[in-house]
Amino acid sequence: MPLLGGSLALAGAWGFLVSWGEQTLPTLVTRGRAVLTLPLAISTLGARNTTDPGLVAALTLFLLAPLAVGAAGVLGRALLRDSVGGRRW
Fold first, then answer.
1. Residue 17, domain member (yes or no)
2. Which domain, by its residues, includes 63?
3. pTM
4. Euclidean distance between the first and final Cα of the chain, in Å?
5. Number of independent structural domains in the chain
């Protein structure tokens, strides 16, 4: 049961990233003033120039996974400390 929230968040993030369409892609301007869609910019970090949504979603989650795990660890420790100390939110 404790993994349910994390699993749902991961599935939601995966669904959001895979559902990007041509009209809904966030764009950014690079240093060379080229306008790239966010998935294309992310895919260049993996040394591949692809717009395959599944591949880009996998690369995005791979890049964001350490941040998510770290945040979950910090939040989990804080919640555990507060619950042991008897304090409530």
1. no
2. 24-85
3. 0.32
4. 21
5. 1
pLDDT: which is higher, 39 or 75: 75
Residue, of 59 and 48, whose pLDDT is higher: 59
From residue 62, alpha-carbon distances to 12, 67, 76, 77 in Å are 15, 10, 21, 23
Q: Does residue 10 form part of some domain?
A: no
Rounded Cα distance between 36 and 38, Å, is: 6
Token pair 């692809």 is at which residue?
50
What is the spatial distance between Cα 17 and Cα 39, in angstroms, rounded to a whole number?
9
pLDDT in tens, 20-54: 665 666 666 666 777 766 666 666 665 555 556 66
Is residue 6 assigned to a domain?
no
Tokens found for residue 27: 């764009």
